[in-house]
């Protein structure tokens, strides 16, 4: 069977204006990195998020933003970090790499994200920080989670890699926590060529450390120098956090990516609205089949980065097989609970009290849902789904 609807590694097709924005930076950029497009992208991103200027830092991908956020947590031996087991591996390992002891939180089965309750269940006096992942594009209950964290003096980092533009009461995901990260990877709803990311840091003192951490410890010299060339560029210094030295990195993003990011901010709300409308059409058209359970949200709290469902009749694999073999539609299963991967088993992190994460993974289906699916492909996938669901009922 030829593939008719692929699970694509690419989320978007760019408009001519967006392509022109990249070409403009290629032609006219005064530098190809760390220039005016970077400054403008950060500024416009902060405006989009409703955040103060100077709180957003573009970086080369989501993981580099996660690594910087982990450094800024300043973990001490024994500090714990709570993270959902049901997420992409990048939400978790950067914190282990910077010295945190990972503790798995369960998800809510209906929304597939953590709640204040599932987090509270695993807090200890050693909990230093919590990573809240707005997986699939749905914003977790941030007001309740922030209230819990504030009452215990715990830092909150939002992994908004999949949820750009989604909001609760007009506050966008990534604007609730102490820090947040975004990804502009090829798969995401906003992409800057293949890679890109953003770090949000709300505390001004911590934010001051980010440019040097991002760029090899480079920082300006204090005061005037008589000869600008002695030595070339600026100073190099060791970023310090509460008396602890932090190693710098080079996590810079190029000017072409930033130029594209600026242009994409103009279209992201439309992309999200189009994905949401399609998701609702799909979900509603299959409402006669309650054995396939979706998470239906008709507000901007969900951007439907991904379209995921649960098969409640135990026929998940038969469904995926039939969709592929008979109809050429490539569905996949995503987000093996992290504690079940060799990586985390080898770190001694195989134990998790996350029954919902396990139950969800073991019955989940992720449909191809890139923004550029044609209407014809989309309708084919819908008709194929109905066909297979009918067949499975009589099998
Ligand atoms: C994509 C993603 C990341 C990592 O982003 P990159 O830009 O690929 O480094 C982190 N967390 C989640 C939930 C993601 O989906």
Structure summarized in a few sentences:
Helix 1 runs antiparallel to helix 8, helix 2 packs parallel to helix 8 and helix 10 crosses helix 13. The protein starts with 15 loop residues before the first helix and ends with a helix.
The separation of the N and C termini measures 22 Å
Task: Give the strand tally.
Answer: 16
* Beta-strand percent range: 15-25%
What ligands are attached or bound here? pyridoxal-5'-phosphate
Biggest sheet strand order reads 1-9-8-5-4-2-3
Number of helices: 13
Give the overall shape: globular
pLDDT average, as an integer? 97
Helix content: 25-40%
Rg estimate, integer Å: 22 Å
Descriptive key words:
395 residues; alpha/beta; seven-stranded mixed sheet; three-stranded antiparallel sheet; 16 strands; 15% strand; globular; binds pyridoxal-5'-phosphate
Structure characterization notes:
- The structure is a single chain.
- α1 packs antiparallel against α8 and α2 runs parallel beside α8.
- The two termini are 22 Å apart.
- With 395 residues, this protein is of the alpha/beta class.
- The relative contact order is 0.17.
- The strands form 5 sheets. A 7-stranded mixed beta sheet has the order 1-9-8-5-4-2-3, sandwiched between helices. It has a 3-stranded antiparallel beta sheet with strand order 14-15-16, with no helix packed on it. Strands 6-7 form a two-stranded antiparallel sheet.
- Pyridoxal-5'-phosphate (PLP) binds next to α3.
